[in-house]
Amino acid sequence: VPPSLKTVYCLRKLHKKKIFTPPPAPRPLSPQVTPRQVAMAFSIQEPVLVDKPVTAPPEKPQISLGTALAQLRNTYILAQNEQGLIIVDIHAAHERLSYEKMKQDPAHFLATQPLLIPITVNLNRQELLVWEKHQQELLQAGLITESCGPETILIREIPVLLHKADIKQLFHDVLADLTVDQRSARINHTIHEILGNIACKHAVQANERLSLPQMDALLRQMEQTPNSSFCNHGRPTWKQITWPEIDKFFLRGR
């Protein structure tokens, strides 16, 4: 069916109208931006990993040993915390603190002393082979040795802390350990024993009077020192008596 005159007129009228506006011409790039940068901005890039500071997980805080109240028999500290009362064995606690402090001082392990008179040690064939093989281990342990004959060696330097030890016997024992296990912790163990004895002798002794600030300082050091719940000989250093235990003893709440 041919279109009517009215339809043709409307179509011509629409054609004359600007129903589409072309986009404006692209603006020139800023001199600070290059075409390469534009292309990179719209390209797919790998995600960038940003390094974040790594923080160690917080350690569980040890129980607070509270505030010192008094010294009992010049032997124990009576303290109070949120859980109740705490009794601390002063000598045992100070012994552990001294021992741990000496352990952290490399001088106690690395220091050696030359001997005015070197120690002569006779070795059998097996011991001689072990000695020749493990020179580095012996050196790291603080034993400076040298050959002095077919089956004899001289020990010229030893760890300072072993100056009263039976060096000959200790050396034979170390070689025996190295023969079996290719390693020996005997010297290190002996040094730890000596450190423990030194700490025991230098710790606060019974019947020594402490002020409240001194007792509080001891409690704070215990809270920050590893293994402070036991002395070097395995005895406990403190005991907690909780408020419920005290209430139960006095039959409170019944």
Short description, anyone?
This protein has 10 helices and 7 strands.
Task: Tell me what the structure shows.
With 254 residues, this protein is of the alpha+beta class. β2 (76-81) and β3 form a beta hairpin. The chain has helices at 5-16, 35-41, 90-103, 107-110, 125-133, 135-140, 167-181, 186-202, 212-224, 243-249, and strands at residues 67-72, 76-81, 84-89, 112-122, 144-147, 152-159, 238-242. 20% of the residues are buried. Strands 1-2-3-7 form a four-stranded antiparallel sheet. It has a three-stranded antiparallel sheet with strand order 4-6-5. 41% of the residues lie in helices and 18% in strands. Residues 38-61 have low confidence and may be disordered.
Could you give the order of the helices and strands?
HHEEEHHEHHEEHHHEH
The computed structural class is: alpha+beta
Helix content: 40-55%
Distance between the termini: 109 Å
The biggest sheet amounts to:
4 strands, antiparallel
Query: Could you say which overall geometry the principal axes of the C-alpha atoms support?
Result: elongated
Mean pLDDT: 76
Strand content: 15-25%
Radius of gyration: 40 Å
| Oligomeric form | single chain
Total E-strand runs: 7
Low-pLDDT regions: 38-61
Provide a count of the helices. 10
In which order are the strands of the major sheet placed? 1-2-3-7
What attributes does this structure have?
alpha+beta, four-stranded antiparallel beta sheet, elongated, single chain, 254 residues
